[in-house]
Amino acid sequence: MSHRFKAALVVAAGLVLLSACTGPKAEEKPAEGAGPETARPSGPLRVAVISHGTAGDAFWNVVKNGAEEAGRQLGVQVEYNSDGDPGNQAKLVDNAVAQQVGGLVVSMANPEALKTSIENAVRAGIPVITINSGEDKSAGYGALTHVGQNETIAGEEAGKKFKQLGKKKLLCVVHEAGNVGQAQRCDGAGTGFSGDVRTLQVDISNPTDAESRIRGAVQTDSSLDAVLTLNSQVAARAVSAIKAVGSAAQVGTFDLNTDVVGAIKSGDVVFAVDQQQYEQGYLPVQFLKLYRDNANVVGGGKPVLTGPDLVDKSTVDTIGPYVRRGTR
After folding, report:
1. Which domains does the chain have, with CATH numbers?
2. Which residues belong to the signal peptide in this entry (predicted)?
3. What is the pTM assigned to this prediction?
C-alpha cells in the first residue's frame, strides 16, 4: 500500500469520526428577505381594544389596565376606546379598520350589531380577538379566538352557591338590555339554582332608578331571599335597596370592585363571581403579538376561559389588595 493511499484513508476516517460526533446540523436561519420573514410587518404592533363599557365602569377600567400593561411589557401600542351603544361601538371598529391597525380586540355584548364591522376587519387582513361577550359567535365572524368566561357556566356556579346557602327564590337583575351574556348568566343561574327564578330589568346608567326597582321587587315579594346582580356597581344598589325595606334577602354578584370587597367582608354580599377581567385585556394583546411575530394561535379552536372564580369571605383577604390596585 502506497504512502499516499494510507494518508487518504486516515483523512477519510477522520471525517467519518467527526460527522458521527457532531450529530445533525442545526437548521440555519433563512437568509434575509427569504421565506416567511418577508411577510412579517415591521415596526411596533398597534392594537385597538374596543369594548361596550360605559363611562366610569370600574369593570372595564380593569380590562383597560390589563391591555395597557401588556402593551408596556411587549412594546405594543394599545389604544382603548369604548361605547355602550352597539351602533357607536361598531363605528369605533370601522374607524380602527380604516386606520389599518395591526390587531383588534372587541367585546361583543350585541354580536349582530358588530357582525359586519368585524367581518370587514377580517377581510382587511386585521387579526381579531373577541373578549368578554359573544363567545358563540366569535369563530363564525372570523376571530382568532375568544377570551373570557363562559357566561352560562358562571351563572350555574352562582345559582349553585345560592342553593348551597339554602335559598328558595332568586331575583336576577339584568342591567343592559340586549346583552346576550347577561341573559346567559341568568339562564345559567336558573339551571344551577334549580328553584324559583325571576328576572328584573334595570338601567345601569340610572343607578337611582335601578335601586328603586330592586327595592320595589323585594318589597312586593317578601319570599325573595336571594338577589343576583350582574355588575359590581349594581350590587351596591341592591344592598341599599334590601336594607331600606328590611328584607332578609342576601346579595351575590358578578364582578369585583373595592365596594364589593368591603361588602363581602361585612356580610352584605355573600359572594362575587370574578371573571378576572384583567386577563381579558392582557391576554389578547399578548396573543396578537405572538400571532404577528410567530403565527401562533391560542385555544385550539376553543375559547380561553378567564373564569369563573367565586370570591367569598374565605378568599376576599387574598384578592382584595389586587382589586385596590386595579388588576382584579
Report:
1. 46-149+277-297 (3.40.50.2300), 151-274 (3.40.50.2300)
2. 1-26
3. 0.81
